[in-house]
């Protein structure tokens, strides 16, 4: 229950946040930050418990008919993510209160960001796959609101939609995959599915499940070629970028892949897809970062790189190195990237621009921020003794230990990290060092709310690097064990000695520094531009083309179906009816015609002839009078048929109604124009064919039904009870006012309403209202 | 006595008749409008309680035993539908207080509203096929008049298309009734179900079923029979659009569910497979129609079509979970869709247009309205944990269980497009700044209650939004109850025995 | 249209046709006829009158607005159904008073009330339509 | 005569449907009348026919004569006729009102509620002239 309650509290606080903001003013941020702080403390208590007792599970039923439970599974993996989410969340709320100080929508920011935090915690803690999905989608939704925070700008609206659609598409695939997985694995609880790995991997649906689940993870975690939404999402205010788009939400996909690794991982397909897409994303992301000069874009692309790295590591996750690397890299990345994003935001906030080319020498104005940036960047560059160094070492070790193509993966990792080193330098050094430049705003040190986060996160990166033992046993090993599906115990040390990997690290650093100095040349080069076009712009364009194509199809099909012409509509309706009835009769039953033709008398043939003639005259009539007379002829011959077949009431009624109809026509037709216009010959032929088809279908069905006798039970009952029980000699009337009086009640209601309707049609004068918009 | 079942017909008729007689007293009509709905709501709750505690309720009209008279029957599905009808009636009656002009009121708006509900309830409650035809006609003629009431150009155009196509549908229905009567000699649906099973050729029964598939398909607005709906729903006042959106097409869905679970289950491999694919195409074509619209209510109208697809998808799957999905979807959709129409009216009242390009700035100035839009809109798009998610989830699980992967794929994809079009409204009408070149707000046009009316209009909006949330968070309870409904529908003997008496 | 002959005929026919229409309605339970047919004849009487003297005079003779008749008819019909419910039967259950007058049995029941309602609705609805259309023409 | 009536019902259906597909809305209404009659004939025929024996209980009897005509379809048709009449009256007056508001009874020219798509060619020609 504890986890659920903590989430519920989070929800309540989220919805109270706008009110709090109004009531508490500038202190609201600090008060609200208590929530993530408390949550961090709460989740920290799980760390020793898990180390001692293993994973915990809590569950209450939610929608039992669909096997949906509010169940939570707390193990090393989920607790690591929960700590990152709530811990970084604490600094983000503080940071946001400074960054958006005085903004009229600050309350809405608090609401959305807190709601996001709760959703994200739900994702990483949920045990039930549907519950997980619920939270997963909630993160998409809150992300939509946050990216569109500056909603009066079209770019923000578009970016919000883009992120929502890309992750939403994946989300739907994910839902399908998860449900199929539950079918195959026999449970909706992840904790139980984890034990069904062999069943799942050997099932015929495995490929489908894997691809669907990965579609969800890849889109959420911005893997190539779906990565384009992430840089676009930088339209969001920087606290959002720092939180959602680097530290937390984008890692949801990584989390889920890690979570399901014991259940789905290890197959050739898994390795191929994850290692392949991961490595591609890693390299593409890292080098795209160097194609831009917008600080947030650079960081966004390096985030893509980080996510690619993690995906690749999970792909080759069969070794201890790989799973430990995932754990370490996740933590390290969240720390330094969160810090650097906030730094970028501070620069933007204080200097009024975040283009690297437009800022410089800010070190003097913003010393604390500069220091935090430096420390975080050193970790990102993977330099001793920072935590990022350990992470990078593990990445290289894992690549080396990979079962297939280790050299290729290692080479790609180095290639990516070279760019990463350069990017770290660009972000952390360029704005703060070198000559001071004039910026749109006069820069000052950011307020404490805005530097606290970067400083603490950056220092944590240093602390964990210096003393990795602090977290190795309680946190990293349980995480690695959860991913591997078996206990893992690796000793985390800063200094491995002079290993080949260290050599590669040094090489990476050297090359990275080289690239750093050549950055401007690279960025201007045709190759870089082509690279950006091919891997940065093209996927996004493909997205736009898909949307356009979809709209084109939508337009095309709607124009065909909803043409605006009543005659098209009717033709379709009649044609469909004729086809449905006719085809079904012929294919499911066949044609059987009844006998009894010889019993038809001459008078009956004559009546039928009059009726047919009347109908034909009505069809071909050129004047309204002829038409009304013809319709009268049809009506009266129908009345005669009723009379000849023992239905006097019917006959009288038909005649009365027919007369009244003629009166109505007389009253209305004098106001209406003549029978022009006339249709083209082709259209008349087509209409005749469609109409005849349905008429023929009706006749055939009737003839078929006539081959069998009808059950007389109702008729006999009415005969027996009409006078005896219902006191009436006219059985038809008794049916109308007694046996089926409810029909008659409905009937007179129809008539009455029709009367009122005619009255309104005639008497209500439409006032001249303005054109275009409908009224009220 | 189960005279309870008569009341959903008698109460609206009574209030309708009183409103006809008191046609010059608008104040009385307005308050009777709301009062009638409240009474109806109480009765519908009583019916639901009755069904929950006593099983299927049956009332033989005129004390004639079935199948000789007309039987009113209420099972779970009926009880749900009657209840939701009453809720929608109340919501729209309140909304109408601020939305309907005095001119329309004096020409019978309130009697029509009452009697529309009478017809709708009649369809839900009747156990007799011909009687169902009669109630369909009651519903139709009132909807005709409501649609045309006001005699404006667009209304006339919309009404011509609406009336004509629906009359064709009625006549196909009537012919189908005649043909089924010719095969079985009965009109009572329970009796008919028994006798249809005894017909030698199931193929002939299937042929007869096509009359109903088409006719109810037109009313339900499925592909390719939906044209009347987008042609007309955006033309009357919002309150009328809203009650239409709430009820009319769903009556068609109800009728489809009823006859294709009770009467036509001889060749489900044929009939229900058709329904399933019709469902798939309907949801796709509807949503594609929606994404290209730029008029608030037209967009919503096409969405109705799309969502009808989901509603009959569960019927096509013909499994307990599938039926649960259908039932849940109907209920959820009525609430959410009606609410969106109501919101469109408020947006129009504020900004003076239904056209997205003339709307804007609502998020900035009316944050509460924005939330009231987001809830039904994202609920409709199937966003968890709102009600639409559970409906869609149920259908997805049922569909995957039946190995109908393609249909499920389409259903999920359509959810995405739904989201796309809902965010289109949100981005244009709410997020975008208010454009400067726009027509005068409706509130400033003479003869229409001013912005003061918005408070009244918000009452039902909030009510329905709360229902969407509650239905989402409390889905567990509702799905359990829906399961009872599905079991009842799939086990025909319970219905048949309840009507005809235990054998 | 306002010819003297037509006016004379209409004035003469009006009471006769109304009487006949009531007769048709009353006998309908046992012989062909009934509320609907009777109602149409009754409406026909006033329509004829309206043709002869104009809808305004016809309204004058009818006294009540046809829409009121329509509403009253519906009310009567519903009440005839509820009559049974008050007595504990199902809605619309026929309730009968049977008199023995000499040889013949005389049945008086709610079915008749029901038919009267039908009659009124038919007259009301038809005249609503006819009057408003005629007023549109003149 | 059931088979003959089955054919007649189909024939009336076909003629009515053809008329419903005409451009002039008055023809559409006429078509509706024909189809209404056709649907009534379907019910009538499906109840099977009996000549010269109306469903009446003769005075002094308590049961109708043996072989009496099936009264149920007659009652159904009576209901259907009345309903059909109400709907017809409304549709006819709607045509009148639509003509007043839109200036035409040509359904192809009724494109107010669904305005033409961009670039669509609509029916040419002026609104119909009222006859003198």
Question: Mind explaining what this structure looks like?
Answer:
- The complex is a heterotetramer of chains A (776), B (503), C (138) and D (132).
- Chain A has 776 residues and is mostly helical.
- In chain A, 74% of the residues lie in helices and 2% in strands.
- In chain A, a hairpin with a 4-residue loop joins strand 1 and strand 2.
- With 503 residues, chain B is mainly alpha-helical.
- Chain B is 77% helix and 2% strand.
- Chain B contains 21 helices and 2 strands.
- Helices cover 72% and strands 9% of the residues of chain C.
- Chain C contains 5 helices and 2 strands.
- A two-stranded antiparallel sheet of chain C has the order 1-2.
- Chain C is flat.
- Chain D is mainly α.
- Chain D contains 3 helices and no strands.
- The longest helix of chain D has 32 residues.
- The chains are: A mainly alpha (776), B mainly alpha (503), C mainly alpha (138), D mainly alpha (132).
- Chains in contact: A-B, A-C, A-D, B-C, B-D, C-D.
- At the A-B interface, strand 1, helix 6, helix 7, helix 24 and helix 25 of A face helix 5, helix 6, helix 7, helix 9 and helix 10 of B.
Q: Secondary structure elements and their pairing?
A:
The complex is a heterotetramer of chains A (776), B (503), C (138) and D (132).
Chain A: H1 2-24, H2 28-44, H3 46-53, E1 56-63, E2 68-74, H4 76-99, H5 106-125, H6 129-147, H7 154-185, H8 190-193, H9 197-202, H10 206-220, H11 229-232, H12 238-247, H13 251-264, H14 268-289, H15 295-315, H16 320-351, H17 367-381, H18 387-401, H19 406-428, H20 448-466, H21 469-484, H22 500-517, H23 519-524, H24 526-561, H25 566-589, H26 602-620, H27 624-644, H28 648-669, H29 681-706, H30 713-721, H31 731-739, H32 741-763
Antiparallel strand pairs in A: 1-2
Helix pairs in contact in A: 1-2, 1-5, 2-4, 3-21, 4-5, 4-12, 4-16, 4-20, 4-21, 5-6, 6-7, 7-10, 10-13, 12-15, 12-16, 13-15, 14-15, 14-19, 15-16, 15-19, 16-17, 16-18, 16-20, 16-21, 17-19, 17-20, 18-19, 18-20, 18-22, 19-22, 25-29, 26-27, 27-28, 31-32
Chain B: H1 7-21, H2 26-54, E1 57-60, E2 71-74, H3 76-99, H4 102-106, H5 109-125, H6 129-148, H7 153-184, H8 189-198, H9 202-220, H10 228-232, H11 238-262, H12 268-291, H13 296-317, H14 320-351, H15 362-365, H16 367-380, H17 387-401, H18 405-431, H19 453-473, H20 475-490, H21 492-500
Helix pairs in contact in B: 1-2, 1-5, 2-3, 2-5, 3-5, 3-11, 3-14, 3-19, 5-6, 6-7, 6-11, 7-9, 8-21, 9-11, 11-13, 11-14, 12-13, 12-18, 13-14, 13-17, 13-18, 14-16, 14-17, 14-19, 14-20, 16-18, 16-19, 17-18, 17-19
Chain D: H1 2-20, H2 25-46, H3 71-102
């Amino acid at each position: 229950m504890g986890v659920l309650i903590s989430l519920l509290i989070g929800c309540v606080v989220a919805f109270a946040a706008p009110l709090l903001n109004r009531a508490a003013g500038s202190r609201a941020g600090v008060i609200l930050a208590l929530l993530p702080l408390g949550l961090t403390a709460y989740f920290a208590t799980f760390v020793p418990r898990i180390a001692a007792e293993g994973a915990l599970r809590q569950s209450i039923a939610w929608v039992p008919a669909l096997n949906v439970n509010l169940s939570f599974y707390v193990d090393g993996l989920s607790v690591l993510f929960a700590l990152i989410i709530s811990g970084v969340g604490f600094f983000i709320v503080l940071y946001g209160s400074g960054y958006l100080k005085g903004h009229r929508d600050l309350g809405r920011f608090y609401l959305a960001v807190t709601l996001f935090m709760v959703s994200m915690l739900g994702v990483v803690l949920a045990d039930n796959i549907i519950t997980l999905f619920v939270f997963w989608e909630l993160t998409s939704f809150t992300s939509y609101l946050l990216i569109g925070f500056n909603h009066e700008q079209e770019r923000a609206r578009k970016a919000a939609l883009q992120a929502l659609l890309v992750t939403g598409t994946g989300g739907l695939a994910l839902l399908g995959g998860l449900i199929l997985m539950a079918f195959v694995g026999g449970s909706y609880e992840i904790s139980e599915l984890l034990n069904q790995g062999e069943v799942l991997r050997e099932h015929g649906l495995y490929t489908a499940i894997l691809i669907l689940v990965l579609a969800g993870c890849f889109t959420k975690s911005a893997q190539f070629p779906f990565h384009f939404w992430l840089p676009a999402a930088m339209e969001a205010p920087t606290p959002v970028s720092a939180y959602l788009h680097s530290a937390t939400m984008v890692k949801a996909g990584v989390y889920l892949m890690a979570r399901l690794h014991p259940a789905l991982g290890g197959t050739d397909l898994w390795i191929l897809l994850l290692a392949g897409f991961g490595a591609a994303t890693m390299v593409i992301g890292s080098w795209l970062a160097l194609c831009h000069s917008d600080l947030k874009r650079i960081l966004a692309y390096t985030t893509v790189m980080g996510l690619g790295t993690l995906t690749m590591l999970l792909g080759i996750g069969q070794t201890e190195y790989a799973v430990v690397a995932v754990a370490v890299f996740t933590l390290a990345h969240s720390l330094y990237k969160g810090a650097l994003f906030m730094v970028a935001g501070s620069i933007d906030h204080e200097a009024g621009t975040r283009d690297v080319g437009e800022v410089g020498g800010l070190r003097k104005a913003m010393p604390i921020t500069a220091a935090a940036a430096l420390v975080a960047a050193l970790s990102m560059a993977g330099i001793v003794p920072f935590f990022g160094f350990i992470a990078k070492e593990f990445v290289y070790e894992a690549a080396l230990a990979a079962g297939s193509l280790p050299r290729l993966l290692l080479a790609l990792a180095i290639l990516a990290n070279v760019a990463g080193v350069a990017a770290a330098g660009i972000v952390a050094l360029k704005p703060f060092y070198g000559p001071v430049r004039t910026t749109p705003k006069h820069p000052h040190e950011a307020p404490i709310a805005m530097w606290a986060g970067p400083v603490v996160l950056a220092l944590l990166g240093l602390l964990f690097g210096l003393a990795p033992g602090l977290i190795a046993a309680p946190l990293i090993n349980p995480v690695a064990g959860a991913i591997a599906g078996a206990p893992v115990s690796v000793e985390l040390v800063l200094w491995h000695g002079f290993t080949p990997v260290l050599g590669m690290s040094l090489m990476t650093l050297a090359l990275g520094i080289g690239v750093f100095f050549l950055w401007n040349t690279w960025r201007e080069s045709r190759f870089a531009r082509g690279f950006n076009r091919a891997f940065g712009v093209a996927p996004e364009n493909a997205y736009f083309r898909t949307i356009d194509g979809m709209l084109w199809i939508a337009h095309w099909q709607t124009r065909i179906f909803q043409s605006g012409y009543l005659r098209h509509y009717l033709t379709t309706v009649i044609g469909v009816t004729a086809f449905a009835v006719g085809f079904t009769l012929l294919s499911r039953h066949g044609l059987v015609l009844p006998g009894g033709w010889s019993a038809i008398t001459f008078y009956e043939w004559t009546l039928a002839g009059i009726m047919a003639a009347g109908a034909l005259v009505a069809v071909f009539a050129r004047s309204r009078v002829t038409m009304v007379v013809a319709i009268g002829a049809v009506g009266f011959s129908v009345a005669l048929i009723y009379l000849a077949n023992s239905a006097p009431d019917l006959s009288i009624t038909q005649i009365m109604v027919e007369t009244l109809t003629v009166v109505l026509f007389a009253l209305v037709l004098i106001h209406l124009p003549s029978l022009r216009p006339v249709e083209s010959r082709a259209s008349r032929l087509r209409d005749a064919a469609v109409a005849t088809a349905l008429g023929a279908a009706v006749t055939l069905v009737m003839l078929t039904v006539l081959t069998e006798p009808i059950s007389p039970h109702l008729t006999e009952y009415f005969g027996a009870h009409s006078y005896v029980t219902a006191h009436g000699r006219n059985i038809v009337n008794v049916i109308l006012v007694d046996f089926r009086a409810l029909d008659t009640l409905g009937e007179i209601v129809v008539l009455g309403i029709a009367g009122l309707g005619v009255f309104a049609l005639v008497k209500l004068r439409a006032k001249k209202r303005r054109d275009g918009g409908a009224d009220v | 006595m189960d005279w309870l079942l008569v009341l959903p017909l008698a109460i609206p008729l009574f209030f309708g008749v009183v409103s006809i007689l008191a046609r010059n007293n608008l104040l009385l009509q307005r308050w009777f409008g709301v009062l009638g709905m409240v009474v109806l709501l109480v009765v519908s709750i009583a019916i639901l309680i009755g069904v929950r505690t006593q099983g299927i309720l049956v009332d033989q009209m005129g004390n004639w035993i079935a199948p000789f008279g007309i039987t009113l029957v209420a099972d779970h599905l009926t009880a749900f539908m009657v209840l939701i009808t009453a809720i929608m009636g109340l919501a729209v009656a309140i909304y109408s207080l601020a939305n309907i002009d005095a001119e329309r009121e004096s020409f019978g708006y309130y009697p029509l509203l009452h009697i529309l509900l009478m017809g709708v309830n009649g369809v839900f409650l009747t156990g007799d096929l011909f009687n169902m035809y009669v109630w369909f006609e009651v519903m139709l003629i009132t909807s005709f008049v409501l649609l045309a009431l006001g005699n404006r150009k667009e209304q006339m155009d919309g009404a011509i298309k609406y009336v004509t196509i629906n009359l064709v549908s009625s006549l196909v229905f009537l012919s189908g009734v005649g043909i089924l009567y010719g095969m079985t000699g009965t009109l009572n649906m329970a009796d008919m179900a028994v006798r249809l099973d005894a017909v030698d050729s199931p193929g002939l029964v299937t042929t007869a079923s096509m009359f109903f598939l088409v006719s109810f398909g037109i009313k339900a607005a499925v592909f390719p029979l939906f044209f009347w709906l987008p042609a007309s729903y955006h033309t009357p006042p919002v309150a009328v659009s809203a009650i239409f959106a709430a009820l009319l097409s769903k009556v068609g869905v109800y009728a489809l569910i009823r006859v294709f679970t009770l009467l036509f289950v001889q060749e489900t491999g044929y009939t229900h497979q058709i329904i399933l694919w019709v469902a798939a195409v309907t949801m796709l074509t509807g949503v594609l129609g929606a994404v290209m619209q730029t008029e608030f209510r037209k967009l919503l109208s096409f969405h109705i079509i799309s969502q009808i697809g989901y509603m009959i998808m569960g019927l096509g799957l013909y499994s307990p979970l599938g039926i649960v999905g259908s039932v849940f979807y109907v209920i959820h959709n009525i609430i959410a869709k009606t609410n969106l129409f109501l919101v469109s009216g408020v947006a129009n009242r504020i900004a003076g247009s239904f056209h997205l390009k003339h709307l804007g700035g609502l998020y900035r100035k009316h944050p509460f309205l924005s939330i009231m839009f987001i809830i039904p809109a994202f609920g409709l798009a199937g966003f968890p944990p709102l009600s639409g998610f559970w409906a869609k989830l149920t259908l997805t699980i049922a569909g995957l269980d039946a190995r109908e992967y393609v249909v499920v794929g389409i259903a999920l994809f359509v959810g995405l497009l739904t989201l796309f079009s809902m965010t289109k409204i949100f981005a244009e009408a709410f997020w975008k700044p208010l454009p400067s070149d726009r027509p005068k707000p409706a509130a400033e046009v003479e003869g229409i209650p001013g912005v003061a009316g918005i408070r009244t209009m918000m009452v039902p909006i909030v009510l329905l939004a709360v229902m969407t949330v509650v239905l989402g968070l409390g889905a567990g309870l509702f799905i359990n109850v829906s399961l009872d409904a599905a079991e009842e529908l799939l086990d025909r003997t319970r219905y048949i025995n309840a009507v005809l008496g235990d054998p | 249209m306002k010819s003297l002959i037509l006016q004379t005929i209409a004035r003469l026919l009006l009471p006769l046709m109304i009487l006949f229409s009531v007769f048709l309605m009353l006998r309908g339970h046992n012989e062909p006829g009934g509320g609907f047919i009777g109602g149409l004849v009754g409406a026909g009487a006033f329509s004829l009158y309206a043709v002869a003297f104009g809808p305004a005079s016809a309204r004058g003779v009818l006294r009540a607005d046809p829409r009121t008749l329509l509403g009253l008819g519906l009310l009567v019909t519903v009440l005839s159904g509820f009559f049974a419910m008050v007595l504990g039967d199902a809605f619309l259950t026929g309730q009968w008073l049977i008199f023995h007058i000499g040889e013949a049995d005389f049945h008086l029941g709610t079915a008749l009330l029901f038919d009267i309602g039908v009659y009124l609705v038919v007259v009301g609805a038809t005249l609503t339509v006819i009057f408003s259309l005629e007023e549109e023409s003149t | 005569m059931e088979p003959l009536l089955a054919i007649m019902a189909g024939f009336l259906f076909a003629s009515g449907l053809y008329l419903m597909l005409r451009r002039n809305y008055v023809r559409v209404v006429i078509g509706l009348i024909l189809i209404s009659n056709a649907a009534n004939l379907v019910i009538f025929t499906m109840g099977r026919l009996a000549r010269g024996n109306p469903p009446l209980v003769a005075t002094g009897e308590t049961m109708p004569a043996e072989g009496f005509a099936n009264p149920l379809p007659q009652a159904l048709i009576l209901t259907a006729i009345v309903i059909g009449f109400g709907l017809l009256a409304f549709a006819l007056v709607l045509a009148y009102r639509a003509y007043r508001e839109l200036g035409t009874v040509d359904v192809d020219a009724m494109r107010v509620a669904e305005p033409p798509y961009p670039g669509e060619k609509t029916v040419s020609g002026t609104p119909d002239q009222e006859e003198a």
